[in-house]
Write a structure and sequence with these properties.
The chain is α/β, with parallel strands linked by helices and 421 residues long. It has 14 helices and 18 strands. The chain has 3 domains: 171 residues, MoaB/Mog-like domain (Molybdenum Cofactor Biosythetic Enzyme, Chain A, 3-Layer(aba) Sandwich), CATH 3.40.980.10; 77 residues, Alpha-Beta Plaits; 162 residues, CinA-like (Maf protein).
Length: 421
């Protein structure tokens, strides 16, 4: 399979910025066994970019572009690829809301020009940007693939090493193969890869990590699929227990879906309802939960008690506890979860407090300190402390994902003790 890399930006051809993206992508593609037949840099010039796309398309199977996805008038990648492929780009309210939240997280209002970044290819694959604002995308034209990524190196590499890597691995797989996914919660990707590599030597697989959740994607022979799936299910848990001394929470999937769908399916299958009390995450967790269709069948609602006043008035948190322990504390988080359980009359509740930064709060705890409590009518309350890293946005999102992991572990009969993580 042949590939072509196109770096887009006038700042590149004028020498203001060195194009490190092309070198990084070339190494990435070669590591997958994909031949790179060319790397070209073009400016923000529509005529030249269209010619380059045409040449790359005629001489390769995969085109990867970087740059030109920003909000300004000279960011022309979307328009050129749309015209070249004949694929319409449509406005996405969901993407727009994500971009707005990223600006709000740093106390800024999103400029109107950034709405341009919410246009995505019809029937294409959107690659969410966890580092910056501009999403990437993948589209197919007559059996050939165009992958478009932001030009900012940190944003490009994050997308390339996660979603693009997964897509490419699947693309390179034989048509006689079928995917089987083992979703591991709470174990670092490097550790997961070590265990799987040793236990399943010779099997084709790939891994992709997302905030404490690692998907191991096995590519199995269709003719032996059921047999191989049984083997993986039996062996993988044993191998983790043997190596780690404990059994991680694992979900077995035939297709990679959003964690919110997993959470919904588990709650509905058990007939349980859920309520949420959020502080530091500001509604992030509730938004993730409601991404899944039919979430209303189990999710009763949430209270975003961002201030101490809200915690006291809306959730009924004891004022004395707020003064004694501070808002970011295991004691207050536990009370928030238990009170939400009563207010919504739910079977299970989860609460989050923490410090997203850039400064600490009255508790003087370190930025990234997070407390999560899960409360149940029948099993009491568990509270865990986490130390999360990254910028404000990443810490908030990580906290929401940790809460979902705790809920799944709780429902699977694990994670029933208080601990630090």
């Amino acid at each position: 399979m042949k590939s072509f890399i196109i770096g887009i930006g006038t700042e590149l051809i004028r020498g203001f910025i060195l194009d490190t993206n092309g070198n990084y992508i070339a190494k990435f593609l070669n590591s997958l066994g994909v031949d790179v037949v060319g790397i070209v840099i073009v400016g923000d010039d529509k005529k030249m970019l269209m010619k380059t796309l045409s040449f790359a398309y005629e001489n390769s199977d995969i085109i990867i572009t970087t740059g030109g996805l920003g909000p300004t008038k000279d960011d022309i990648t979307r328009e050129c690829i749309s015209e070249f492929t004949g694929i319409n780009f449509v406005f996405s309210e969901e993407i727009l809301e994500e971009i707005k939240r990223k600006f709000l997280a740093v106390h800024k209002e999103m400029p109107v020009s950034n709405q341009k970044q919410a246009f995505i290819p019809e029937n294409g694959i959107v690659i969410k940007n966890r580092v910056g604002s501009a999403p990437g995308f993948i589209i197919n034209k007559d059996g050939k693939t165009i992958i478009s990524l932001p030009g900012v190196p940190s944003e490009m590499t994050d997308m390339l090493e996660n979603e693009v890597k997964l897509y490419m691995t699947g693309l390179l797989s034989s048509q006689n193969e079928k995917e089987f996914i083992v979703r591991i919660l709470g174990v670092p990707e490097s550790r997961v890869d070590e265990i799987v590599a040793e236990a399943f030597s010779g099997k084709k697989y790939g891994t992709i990590a997302d905030y404490g959740i690692v998907d191991v994607i096995f590519y199995l022979d269709r003719s032996k699929y059921e047999e191989e799936v049984r083997e993986i299910k039996e062996r993988i848990i044993e191998e983790f227990k043997k190596t780690l001394g404990t059994v991680p929470t694992a979900l077995f999937l035939e297709e990679r879906n959003d964690i919110s769908v997993n959470l919904r399916d588990i709650f509905i299958s058990k007939g349980f309802t859920l309520s949420v009390a959020e502080s530091m995450t500001g509604g992030y967790l509730s938004q993730i939960i409601t991404k899944a269709p039919n979430a209303s069948k189990y999710f009763l609602g949430s209270i975003v008690s961002y201030s101490e006043v809200a915690k006291e008035k809306a959730l009924g948190v004891n004022r004395g506890n707020l003064q004694k322990y501070f808002a970011t504390s295991p004691e207050v988080t536990k009370e928030m979860a238990e009170n939400a359980l009563k207010i919504f009359d739910s079977d299970i509740s989860v609460a989050i407090t923490g410090i997203a930064g850039p400064e600490t709060d009255s508790s003087k705890r370190e930025v990234g300190t997070t407390f999560i409590s899960v409360s149940s009518k029948n099993s009491g309350t568990i509270t865990r402390e986490f130390r999360l890293f990254g910028n404000r946005e990443k810490i908030r999102f990580s906290a929401a994902m940790r809460a979902i992991t705790m809920l799944i572990e709780f429902l699977s009969g694990r994670g029933t003790e208080n601990e630090k993580g």
